[in-house]
Design goal:
The model has no long low-confidence stretch (mean pLDDT about 90). A 7-stranded mixed β-sheet has the order 1-2-3-4-5-7-6, with helices on both faces. The chain is α+β, with helices and mostly antiparallel strands. Helix content is about 40%, strand content about 20%. A hairpin with a 2-residue loop joins strand 2 and strand 3 (about 65-75). Helix 1 crosses helix 2. It has one domain (about 5-200): 3-Layer(aba) Sandwich (Aminopeptidase). The chain binds coenzyme A (COA). Coenzyme A binds near residues 135 and 171.
Length: about 210
């Protein structure tokens, strides 16, 4: 595929494709996080995206197709909160028992992302490439854009978190110069949340 690609801020009109990409991310990184039938899960993710702000979120477009998304948060522009309206709609979407299991999964997911970035850091999150477009450079291009956004905002370090079992993403980030380590979660978060590793990279200031 050699169509040129560009990255732009996500718009409300991207919600259907963002929902599809983020459903892929949850299924890939945290299988079993959401319960119930796939249509109900997809509808829940659509509501999460629909009812939340799109601040700091970008999409990568190739030809006229969105093939990747990613987001960056800083202390001045923090990660948007999880849309509580979407959480409240879980029982009607997937039934009480599945809703409770999904809520437990969502809470465990939130525990591992709850720390805000430090003043000189940018937190990169929710990076996913459409499964039909992986291995063609879109992920690296999205990361370059997110890092550029961070340096343009005066940040010196990019930080991110990966679920420990996601060996592919860990290798992808390591290939881009990210190092595993850094401050760990408190004991409670580590015990209850999904096991994750922190990765970081020092960013070259823009000239
Ligand atoms: C991880 C992900 C974003 C990578 O995007 P991608 O477009 O497939 O990656 P790219 O084609 O840009 O690859 C860039 C480099 O990383 C390497 N890489 C990518 N995926 C890799 C993997 N699974 N294992 C090892 N290396 C990998 C590539 O070989 C390439 O190396 P090169 O520059 O030396 O050729 C994508 O596979 C994805 O969406 N995965 C599912 C969701 C996910 O896990 N997101 C991360 C959440 S923290």
């Amino acid at each position: 595929m050699d169509s040129p690609s560009r990255v732009r801020s996500a718009a409300r009109s991207d919600i259907p494709v963002l929902s599809r990409l983020l459903t892929q991310l949850y299924a890939f990184e945290l299988p079993g996080l959401l319960r119930g039938d796939p249509a109900a899960q997809a509808e829940f993710v659509r509501r999460l995206v629909l009812w939340g702000p799109l601040d700091g979120r970008f999409v990568l477009v190739r030809g006229d197709e969105v093939v990747a998304t990613g987001a960056v948060a800083t202390i001045d522009a923090p990660r948007p909160p999880t849309a509580s309206g979407a959480l409240l709609s879980l029982p009607s979407l997937m039934g009480a028992a599945n809703a409770v299991k999904s809520l437990v999964g969502v809470a465990r997911g939130l525990l591992i992302v709850a720390s805000p970035p430090a003043a000189d850091e940018a937190q990169i999150h929710s990076v996913v490439v459409d499964d039909r477009a992986r291995g063609q450079g879109a992920g690296a291009e999205m990361m370059a854009h997110l890092e550029h956004t961070a340096t343009a905002a005066g940040k010196r370090r990019a930080v991110l978190q990966v679920v420990s079992s996601n060996a592919g993403a860990r290798a992808f980030y390591a290939n881009l110069g990210y190092t595993e380590g850094g401050p760990t979660h408190g004991r409670l978060r580590s015990a209850v949340g999904f096991r994750s590793v922190l990765m970081h990279k020092d960013l070259a200031p823009t000239g």
